[in-house]
Amino acid sequence: MNYQDFESAWYLGLIITGGFVILLYGAGLVARRLRPLWRQGDRAAVALVGGVTAMSVTFVLAILLAALIVLIFQGTA
Length: 77
Fold this sequence. Notes:
The protein is mostly helical. Helices cover 94% and strands 0% of the residues. The chain is built from two helices and no strands. Helix 1 (3-40) runs antiparallel to helix 2 (43-76). The radius of gyration is 18 Å and the shape is elongated. The termini are close together. The mean pLDDT is 86.
């Protein structure tokens, strides 16, 4: 393993970490916007948007974890 391998892995790790932080922040923003809708009694909209958000978070999280796993296994090979 040489310096170029470490440098590209470092940048990819930063990108993955940044994507994870943005993902969590966005999910928090959606949850904060859904709270007033729940109090107003618009349960169908909250269920729909909450479900779509949960699916999106799961999908993007799976992609980020797969990229991280590939990065780790390439570093050990």
